[in-house]
Amino acid sequence: MCTQRPPHSVITYGAVILAAGVVSGTAATLVQVALWLLFTADFPGVLFRDARLTAALVLGARVLPPPATFDFAVLAVATIIHFALSVAYAAILYPFVARRGYLWAVTAGAVFGIALYAINLYGFAALFPWFAQARGWIAAAAHVAFGVSASTACRFLLFRCGGHRAGGH
User: Fold this and answer.
1) 37-61 confidence digits (pLDDT tens)
2) Residue 169 has what pLDDT?
3) In angstroms, how far is CA 133 from the centroid of its own chain?
4) Is the pLDDT of residue 129 over 80?
5) What's the CA gap between 81 and 43, in Å, rounded?
6) Where are the beta strands (DSSP E) in 52-132?
7) Contact, 64 vs 130, CB < 8 A?
8) 3-state secondary structure of 136
9) I need a surface site. Which of 32, 63, 79, 149 has the fewest CB within 10 A?
10) 44, 59 Cβ separation under 8 angstroms
11) Within 13 A of 105's CA, how many CA atoms are on the CB side?
12) What does the alpha-carbon distance between residue 80 and residue 101 come to, in Å, rounded to a whole number?
């Protein structure tokens, strides 16, 4: 992303958060897909189901009924929501890990991921009850992967692009 170290700026921090959100959203998706492939017999059905659960936030409950099959519009909306939330969550995590040591960042990221799992699949389920069906250890692992990759990406990108040392290598 950055090859030179520009002066500190809001744009630099915004770019770090944007990149960390995209990287960690992608990493969490890859972990979840890999675990589904290894431990479920219903792939890609579970992927299409979760895409519908997410897209229903914007498109409404009309996209929820089975069968959970491929629908480009549903996947596009779910992807936009997923990455928008990933960037927002990276922005929340950023101040807690940016200038801390690596071990702190990884630990804080894992704890953040567990908290996100609880918020997303229990808190949001109070408002959007269809999310309850997505609960499970695979979703929890994906949220932890998100937190760890977001925290380490924030540290790495801030150090590389921000021109200062994040504490404790």
Assistant:
1) 999 999 999 999 999 999 999 999 9
2) 40
3) 19
4) yes
5) 21
6) none
7) yes
8) coil
9) 79
10) no
11) 23
12) 32
